[in-house]
Amino acid sequence: MKEIDTQDVEAFVDGAGVSDSTNAKNVTILRAVWNSWNKHNAKQRVEGDPFAFAVSDSKAAAKTSAKIRRPMIPSEFEYFCASIANEPDPEVQMIGKIMAYCGAPTIEAAKLQRSDVKLDAAVPYIVFRSTQDSITGKDRLDRAVPIVGALLDDFRGYVRNHFNKGEGSGFEMQRLFPNLCYGTHSASKRSKVLKSHVKNLRPRDPKLLGPYSLRHTFKDRAPKAGVRTDIAEYLYDHKLKQSSAIHRDYGTKMPASDTLDLMRRIDEISDWGFIEEYDE
Predict the structure, then answer these.
(1) What is the mean pLDDT of the chain?
(2) Is residue 256 part of a domain?
(3) What's the CA gap between 243 and 153, in Å, rounded?
(4) 127 vs 235: CA distance, rounded Å
(5) Residue (of 104, 145, 125) closest to 231 by Cα position
(6) Do 51 and 180 fall within a single domain?
(7) How far is CA 94 from CA 101, 125, 205, in A?
């Protein structure tokens, strides 16, 4: 470790052949290992921080080179919904349907527990929790999202045919998607399979299109359905002053009955947003 200097780290970054954002993640992890060694091995502590400049430069470069994600246009959303309905893996299929339904991030859908889905309530709903067993790394809102339309039948069918209560106790028994909820392998598989159901029908558009675009799509569909911005942000968990205010006003969560009709209207929307045209 004493032989590693700033130039060595910069050479590693230059030769990695990966994106700026990946470089930033990699050197941040290596820096954390370095700092952990120094913290727990005081007698063999290595002075200096050869990763400091590389971390700073990589993060700055990542911000500059980052591409903006875009929402799906109606035909792309229709393609995704039809494609995911034919996905042979029932866990991936349900995760994709939840994402398309309410704009939930992949990990929020994947980490759901059986107790988070209230199928027998007067108004069936999903509870997305901000703190329980959370590995999202982001400060999100607790929220209750009513389940309407085809998703309700899909959930009931999934629980009836595919949910097997795990052995043991606690969270492991309750995981709705036990094969895809946690771990690097699970995240990689989720991402790969979900991406296979996304079709870019606007190849000339420079913005990125992927499974996360479902979140941006919900953001576009909600105002088209006449849903107030603050309530829409609460439903798809975009934590801003306005959506946080709704959370505070109710003290716990907005009752699912209060947003039932709004989710019905959003679910029925088939056209939304401004679609920029490109000349040939």
Answers:
(1) 84
(2) yes
(3) 29
(4) 11
(5) 145
(6) no
(7) 10, 15, 29
pTM score = 0.72
Asked whether the beta carbons of 266 and 225 are under 8 A apart, the reply is yes
Taking the CB of residue 115, how many other CB atoms lie within 10 A of it? 13
Q: Domain span at residue 240?
A: 74-268
| Residues in contact with 60: Cβ distance below 8 Å, sequence separation at least 6, in sequence order | none
CA distances from 21 to 18, 61, 182, 203 (A): 8, 8, 22, 23
> pLDDT tens digit string along 57-98?
888 877 766 678 899 999 999 999 999 999 999 999 999 999
Number of domains into which the chain is organized: 2
Q: Map tokens 């002053």 to a residue.
A: 241
Query: 3-state class of 193 per DSSP?
Result: helix
Q: Is residue 277 part of a domain?
A: no
In angstroms, rounded to a whole number, what is the distance separating the alpha carbons of residues 175 and 208? Answer: 31
Burial class of residue 164 (count of CB atoms within 10 Å of its CB; 0-12, 13-18, 19+): exposed
E strands of 33-177, at which residues? 117-118, 125-128, 143-146
Cβ atoms of residues 224 and 71 within 8 Å: no
Backbone angles phi, psi at 117, to 5 degrees: -110, 110
* 275 found inside a domain: no
Closest CA to 113 of 187, 172, 167: 172
The residues, any chain, with a CB within 8 Å of residue 40's CB and separated by 6 or more, are: none
- 274 lies in a domain? no
